[in-house]
């Protein structure tokens, strides 16, 4: 029943009854999952309802299917733009199909171990969506042990469908943009990988940076600054690179949030962007356009929507093989990148 | 059992058994809610466990209490910084008490009517937390009809505990800051109230603006620009005010997101902040510090934490009268506000 779309005013219970060749009362009983209705009749009614896009109430659907009509969604940090956007896209697709979302926000390594310790999703959900967590063997066993379809966003689990982007390729493209502008000393502002959270995205984006630099025969030694993820981290990482004997002329930030922090450092240091420093981010965060930040766009909402679709098809076709969907990314050139100007190399006077 | 804090390694089942004067097996049975244990013994065990901060598994707690150990949280927009932050604070407090969160993100007026139409929280939660929605009579009946404690953040419901800030007073303070700097023509960038979502915060912040201006005997006619909420809305509202025959010298934005949009308009128009235009926001969004934005801070995480505490005490003491907690706000002066400079009045050349 989950696949039935809400299509108000489109068809009615009487149409379902007529199509299935039963009484209205039988339709009602069948949709409620009443034992008075034979399995054969019930399946006939459900088929008629499906073909007519009949809108059943989720409560009826739940009773009829014996399921929870709820999807558990596990996110590392709901306060980060990326995760909130994915969840919004996911919820939209699931709500339209009459399914509810039970959201788990891990928050930190403690939250993560508490979650896997307790597995509060057990017997409460029909499917699980996991965002951006590389699972260890034990965690993997716990999740697959739930016995429901698992869909991954931004990471992969053997045997499960997943959606994401090619982070290595997208990061490589960002750095190539700087190389094509003529930059040779290009730094990377990197979020230190949170201990025990096992994100693979930071690793992939760094790999893309290294690959693009290697392809162009450019040196990367000492040009990566790792700080805690986020705007403040980006600000500190930028300060670190400015303090080098020979600072870079351009930087690639792992995420737009880190790029935005870097812009603050540059503003406070009195350095002009892009004249004295080019900055490129990653994600196309809401704020990127507002700050005229050059970045790599990814379809965040679309990843959520695709995951919702994978959940629904996983429930409809439990035996279908897992799918891996890679969504495209796109370079968005705004005002923070330009060719290097030899005369405008950053000064060595760095703010404290 | 919900009030028991996780305190790993602090006390053990044997201590509980000793204190309650029963066997280990009885403790286990009592915590599982087994009918083999008398009500008197069970309450003795629970008391001992509570006093020793014994960590029961949520599953055991659920069985023992006959409850879901789940709190339903209803938010209008999970993608907005404010709501995500409140949810993070709320979840932290509830998770520590062994409770899970079932999150409902309404998203828009359609999502709202679907939610109240279906009431998917029914029989699934022990309590409900509602964020920033003014409920109409019918919605109110549906929520109170759930028969569980209801806690409100950023709005009030008769008979329910609530936490929030005094938006009128805080907005008045923001505008007074501009007045004290010597500004007389002060505009407001206002998010148009979403139809049917019934937010009261925009109304209150506008009222605070009008009150501060009236107290100082300043004119407000034509100085409020209303646009859809968000950075783009703020950008458009700023453009509107710049197009006035006599533009303001300072603006108060309903939220930092709108102020950030206004900063983009000013940057693109070539106007310097604060020399040619002072801008003050509201919220102390993560980005405010990065953009050196003067604003009014509110304890967003703290509102979530307070709501969690209200949920727990509402469950522990169902007959206690509802509480109303107003958390303090604070003016944070950064780099976007300064006295007006007569010579530096904004030009009338406004970007398209």
Compute the gyration radius of chain A: what is it? 25 Å
Q: Which structural class fits the helix and strand makeup of chain A?
A: alpha/beta
Q: Pair with the most extensive interface?
A: A-B, 38 and 38 residues
Shape of chain A: elongated
Overall mean pLDDT score of chain A?
Answer: 85
Distance between the termini of chain A: 62 Å
Number-wise, the strands of chain A total 12
Give me the strand/helix succession of chain A.
Answer: HHHHEHEHEHEEHEHEHEHEHEHEE
Share of β-strand residues of chain A: 15-25%
Which ranges of chain A are low-confidence, i.e. pLDDT below 50, for 5 or more consecutive residues? 1-11, 53-64, 348-352
Secondary structure tally, helices of chain A: 13
Helix content of chain A: 40-55%
Largest sheet of chain A: 6 strands, parallel
User: What order do the strands of the largest sheet of chain A run in, or round the barrel if closed?
Assistant: 2-1-3-4-5-11
Oligomeric assembly: homodimer
